[in-house]
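Chapter review: from sequence to fold.
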Amino acid sequence: MGSDAIAIRLLDWIDGHGADLAKVEAVFTRPDRPAGRGQRLQPNPVKLWALGRGLPVFQPERLDDTALGQLAGLRADVALVMAYGQILGDAFIEAPRLGTLNLHASLLPRYRGASPIQSAIAGGERETGVALMRIVRELDAGPVADEERVPIGPLDTAADVEESLAAACVPLVARALPLLALGRLGFREQDASQATFCRRLGKADGALDFAAPAAVLAARINGLFPWPCCTVEIAGQLVRFGLADAPGLETAGGPAPPGTVTGSDGEGLLVVTGAGLLRVRRLQRPGGRMLPAALFLNGFPVPPGTRLESRPMPGLVR
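The token string follows.
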């Protein structure tokens, strides 16, 4: 049960190397959604994967009695859920013989909710992971069976970490399925006092306040790429920032207000912040491609002394 490309690596493994442990009987995924300039209905990656293998695909808009009957009719041993986008009721959770397990892209109980990958990177974390848990009616609060940890590098974006987390699902499920089949898969309750929550993101979250430290801004830029992406108006155009770091450089030639461009060092555009210089390594103009800073600045010069406007940055985690 899933709707996002993060599940494809695990599905490929089950379909191939994991076939001696399990077999995918069917896929439940979200209904097709309009996408692209023409806003035509488009299938998601999980549906395309299933259709390519001739598997039944169920796309209920609501998980009603009809959908429950479809699930029960499969007589499945277990349902695996990852980034499905639907809330499961008790009857759905209990329909498979061995229950329903969820793969959540964080080290629970931290970063429960809709944007765990982006929020962990934007929060400056140096490690995240995938947790395998039983689903309960409370958001991401079920007992955890196992987890697979994944490092976050200083230049990792959400796209990079998502790819690593997709790969981490394979050893996690490979360890769990044999134990589940034998009735020996143990679970531990989460410490609710340590729980944090991250919400669904929107375009407004791409704001940058240059009064913040460079390390905070770099983490936010990397965490919110490719969506919703941090943007700054430069010369009347909304420029997207795709990668940044905080190289530990200080402003030369005296203090300058946060948001002031001091030039570039060959690797990125340098911007004064509340603490240290921010180096923006990849940028994109409207209608263009995301480019390394040197190539971008060849066609879109940003002179030293340019002042980038700050905007308040909404909080991502509570």
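Two observations follow directly from the output. The mean pLDDT is 95. The chain has two domains: 5-198, 203-299.
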